[in-house]
Fold this protein.
Amino acid sequence: MFEKKYDALIIGGGAAGLSCAYAISKNNFKIAIIEREERLGGILNQCIHNGFGLHYFKEELTGPEFASRFINLIKNKENIDVFLNTTVVNIKINGEEKILSCYSKKHGVLNLKAKAVILAMGCRERNRGNIGTPGTRPSGIFTAGLAQRLVNIDGYIPGEEVVIVGSGDIGLIMSRRLTWVGCKVKAVIEIQPYPSGLTRNIVQCLNDFNIPLYLSHVISKINGKDRINSVDVTPLENGKYLEDKSFNIKCDTLLLSVGLIPENELSRKCGVQINPDTNGPYVDAYQMTNVDGIFACGNVLHVHDLVDYVAQEGIKTGESVAEYLKGNLKDRKQFPVYASSNIRYVCPNKFDPSFDNKFYMRSMIVKNGATLEVKLNGKTIKTFKFAHVQPSEMISVNITREDILKEINDYVLEENKIEFRLE
Amino acid sequence: MDKIYDIGIIGAGVVGANIARKLSQYELSICILEKEADVSFGISKANSGIIHAGFHHPPKYLKSRLELEGNLMFDRLQKELHFPFKRSGILVVAFSEEEMKSCYQLYDQGMINGVIGLELCNRNRILQLEPKLGQEVIGGLYAPTGGIVEPYRFVFALIESAKKNGVEIKLNFKVKSAKFNGEYYEIFSNKNEKINAKYIINCAGLFADEVSKICGGEEFNIKPRKGEYFLIDKSASYIPSKVIFPVPTSVSKGILVIPTVEGTCLLGPTAEDIDDKEDLSTNRENLSKILYLTKKIISQISEKDIITSFAGVRAALDTNDFYIEWSKKSKNLLQVAGIQSPGLTASPAIANYVKDLLKERNIKLVEKQNWDPFIEDIPRIRHLEDFEVDFLYNKDNSFANVICRCEQVSEAEIREAIRKGHTTLDGIKFYTRAGMGRCQGGFCSYKIMKILSEELNIDLTEITKRGENSYILYKKL
């Protein structure tokens, strides 16, 4: 059995894991990235379209380019080991030490040990079963991400006539991609009355190609014995199916882009508490979960819409891990953060008044001219104006140390809380 | 000259597989004909997977007798064939005095049938057996001999054992015609392949009526009755340890909560008479009915934990009993039809019964000297400790390559499945569980396709979900 000891172990070599590794490695700690695929980069590798990096690198990159920026930063560093084609199957906790059980074709069973573990496993796609689409069970039904991989990495076209369920970003990107490779994308069907992907993707991937988007519609039945041959589509009105207005669309392929779920099976196994609002762990101001020394960042924590935010979060997490390893996170005073009116969730779930805190959150409403109010102990300390908010676009705000210290002088002694409200 | 088999078995479901394996004990040449791309792809693939205890049907039925006999055979079969099986126990729960009366009747019926260990329970006892039952429960019935099985794994193992003992199998062989020439049947497929067999055993499940007609046998009608199910992930907040039935109605045993041996949980089935035997579609109303009814039994059941839904079809006859006899119309045709619930439970006993029917016809049954009841137990890494995986890795490094992350299936297991003849994505899924978990193949199906294309030396576009026209990829970019 292969055994090795590190300061920190990062599970997942996608955008979150890479950026986190980069931040920790600057402090000369010995770390390892464990990646189950054959190369680093995660899902970015199959996202060959551009639009990545506008916030973080201030330039427009493709997915593989974005990944390679970080891969280059950590490449050939002596203090970083990378285990590819390696799957973590369990995390055991033995006092301060965490032991990862991993399997790989190269090393067999690996027991990797470290004081800090960073969860950066990303998310999986919701599938037909999760949305309960009735009908037959033929071939030709793919999650959008799987189809994207098959086209962009393996070089295969799934079918000729395509219907896409859900207007999530991967579905929109795939509408355009499949049109480019010669498929006929016949419709995008969205259950909500508003699109669930980024506005720029609706414009660039659907409108530019005259692909119809049916809002407030559902696939009410999948037809076909061996291969899918059509779908029944039914409009919704106030949550009710308007059966008599149903119509049929012929197709040989159905892609599902109906949301992502953070992959926390491993986290649960080692006692990490999961927030039902995000399906990711609860984390404090340092991205640490309820289990001492286990951190989380990226889509395993909450589903992001931009990889730039993932990288920011990964960097912050890496910096916190370094502080943790130096012993600087002991006895830090932290206070809770709450999502209030019209906010579905806020991440992280705690703040530390002694430094600047960045928060990510999602709106529950669609609104033009919205105001985000930040209340500290009931008193408004800051407001942010947004031209437009919608559930699919993540809101990210900074609350500085000064903003907080305006209100509380001796925070060490007090019980404090921050609350976010959207109007 | 073409080979003439002693026995041709039509249909490789749980009944055909049990008969094939039973008869492989004797000096007989046997060939199984299956129309699908893999065995167990019909009724045996999609059903409740319950080993019934034997109290649901009155003693007048043949099926009641075979159910009880079959139930008792499973422990030994499992030791020989290593399929997932567990005597989990079965509960019937009553929520009213009226329903409690039905439990008394089931108890009496079970006692007459000879069920071992049946127990009538009051509220305290039933809650002790299953603490998370709906609070209005007033009592019920407990059958400790009831159990659960992974039905397709049972069939795969039986077929493997039969093959090991000389039985041959033809997949993708859809019987189109069969003529008895006075000595043997000449059986043709829809692709004009030909097989000769002295006796035909009709185990064609949903299509037993059509096969009977083709072979010149009796006319009868198999009435398809569809049942829809939900599958709940093993990470669900609560999964009971026992199969839980409501009180049965005249048409079905009701909608149940069924833990599986592999740790997931089935909810269902509905019961709906349909016209099309191949109609495996699910419908929204039925699925919400399942949720409503099972939440009454166990309130923790949540739609959030659903990973998939599917449907299966029962092959019912008007008599509501099994029909296992020699054809009176066609020589050397043995009918094994109408095998609906408890067909899975009864199936090993059906095989014994069929063997006795062969004996009655003075067919010589000479036991083979070298018959081997055992097959090899294939290691599956999800059941193993780290050191065991490392041990296997030292012999074959593909045991340490995790292909399906949700169900933890290794590359070695996928390759083993393919080498055992499971060459479609569904076949591999049912043999290994790869793609059966919460992501439903989102992450692993392309990896499995690559292994398939390597093992079979075919292009990815030739791979299918379950044979015929169920291709996955249309063309190369």
Summary: Chain B touches chain A through 57 residues (CB under 8 Å). The two ends of chain B are 48 Å apart (CA to CA).
